[in-house]
Amino acid sequence: MTSISVVIPVYNCARYCTQCIESVLPQLAGDDEIIVVDDASSDNTDEALQALSSQHHRIRLILHSDNLGTLRSRRDGVLASTGDYVMLIDQDDEIAPNSLNQLRQYIAGSRFDIIHFGVRVVPENAAARKAAAGMEGFLCPTPRELHGQDILKLQFAAEHGFDWHVHHRLFRGELLRRAYKACAGTRLVLSDDLYMNFIIDAYATTYLALPDSPWYLYHLGRGDTFGRALTVESFARLVQRDAKALQLIQEFVAANRNTIPREDWDDRVADVRDRLGEHMMNEWKDNLPAPMQPAALPIIQRSWASDVICAELFRYVRDYAYDYLQHPEDATRQDTDKNLTLRYLKYATDIEQVTPPLLTNIHYTQLRDIAYSHLHDARLVSSAKESAPNHVLRKIREFLHRR
């Protein structure tokens, strides 16, 4: 029987991690195993794990003496695994009953490197309940097979891509151990999913996404701060974390350009850069209170290029200017859209004046050009080509002064 190793990194999660482990235990068979990596918990997690492992010989514990972060914890667990296939589960999630048996039907006699299955979101608070349906739509993959270089090409694509979590996937053990052996031995949390998926995809040759397979139970809002507003300090950590993930990917590509032959490395890194920029700026816009946003922009500029930042600001300009055009009969809504359009435009042009963006960033130039086209149509600037910062700033200042 094909064996499965389930790797679960834990930290200060005694309340939920035993529930996670117990969702897996009844599904194990043959030489299956659970590897739990306790990342130097300071609560009673260690006691709970010791008690559970003493009752079940399939549970193997790895105990860190220092807190090393999620990347290192997953790495230690994966490299200690022996399974033909390996699954990663977060400490506060579960897998549905009979999930492993369902997955065995796809791995028996097959050589898929990655088997991507679906998610059922279990909301744990009011904010999570509002987001649950959309989150499931994003996390449940489009059924398809991918081969060779198309796996990495599509994962981070702006269209038809798929999520970059490492959970709700079953990986061929040989592949995953190779990927984690190749990753940097550094501290990284949350953004390590994206980093590792890039490496895994670079090595993978076959990918299968399953239909109707909601076997990963994602407890949204459990054990995290989902739905809470960011502070400038917590946002600064997010910015640095995402920047580090991009840097690590760039270092991986630099080290493997000659050993993993493909001609599109730069395009693939650009895809990741754009997705990280989109994620970071959406957090800035949606979860950082508006009065704090101007103070956070210099923090972003210390870690990210101006074209990455301005691309997303122009995306907001594009969207609000378009919305302004679509509702000519609603003066109140138009006034709000106009105010938001010019606010984000001012942020972008201020940054452009200080640090001119690289025009080689196609994502930036396309969003900028579409934004100015909408601005021209809305008569918020006098010409679609009139995009010099001084002209735009004058228009913005005139509008804000009138208000």
TrEMBL record:
Keywords: Transferase. InterPro entries: Glyco_trans_2-like (IPR001173), Glycosyltransf_2 (IPR050834), Nucleotide-diphossugar_trans (IPR029044). One of its GO terms (molecular function) is transferase activity. Residues 5-144 form the Glycosyltransferase 2-like domain. The keyword Transferase applies. SUPFAM superfamilies: Nucleotide-diphospho-sugar transferases. This is Glycosyl transferase family protein. The lineage of its organism: Bacteria, Bacillati, Actinomycetota, Actinomycetes, Bifidobacteriales.
